[in-house]
Specification:
With 200 residues, the protein is of the alpha+beta class. The chain is built from 8 helices and 5 strands, in the order E-H-E-E-H-E-H-E-H-H-H-H-H.
Length: 200
């Protein structure tokens, strides 16, 4: 049996090398993860060699298109705080056309949204088993403006940021919330507003 303790398993998976995880006992008796090669017939050719680096020019094009905003929360950030992200996760889409990338296949995310997306995607059944780009394309993390699910769960999500002069409006809302959690208070305000619009 080929047991791998190094190099990093995630790096090998990202390079298209199939691995299986199992538990072993260390010399001190602690349970630790170990890895062995999976079915080598399942090597993903498009991933061999790992992720391709994004050029500065490519990132600049995305920044010009987005106005320097995170695609999910719409917060405006300095260039260094925005990260180029595969719209459909790399784990599912790979980098098949890395020599002629289409801007529509990528987006800019702030660090916070990128971490939230990564956590959500890595815990999605599509990521773990199905590997369907079509399922990803109907997910919030790919198209937050028009989606059917979040990581295959029937959820709706709204990310909001108050910037600059808007911060005083947020502070007023926080006072009105009187110690209640802001997301719950905002939902209540919206419910009342929708009720007023519909006359109920």
């Amino acid at each position: 049996m080929d047991i791998l303790m190094r190099p990093e398993p995630l790096e090998m998976l990202e390079q298209g090398i199939p691995l299986e995880t199992f538990r072993v006992r260390s010399g001190s008796g602690r349970s630790i993860a170990a890895y062995k090669f999976g079915d080598l017939l399942k090597i993903v050719d498009d991933k061999l060699g790992g992720r391709k680096v994004f050029s500065k020019e490519f990132k600049s094009l995305l920044i010009a298109r987005s106005g320097g905003r995170c695609y999910v929360c719409l917060g405006k950030f300095e260039e260094r705080y925005l990260q180029v992200d595969h719209r459909v996760p790399y784990e599912i889409s790979t980098d098949k056309n890395s020599h002629k990338r289409n801007l529509d296949d990528y987006m800019l995310l702030c660090g916070s949204c990128n971490r939230a997306k990564s956590w959500s995607c890595e815990n999605c059944d599509n990521w773990k088993r199905k590997k369907s780009p079509a399922i990803c394309k109907s997910c919030y993390w790919v198209f937050p403006e028009e989606y059917a699910h979040i990581a295959e769960n029937k959820l709706r999500r709204l990310d909001m940021i108050w910037l600059g002069k808007e911060i005083s409006e947020y502070d007023k809302l926080k006072k009105l919330a009187k110690g209640n959690a802001m997301p719950l208070y905002i939902k209540e305000v919206l419910k009342r507003h929708i009720g007023n619009l519909s006359g109920k």
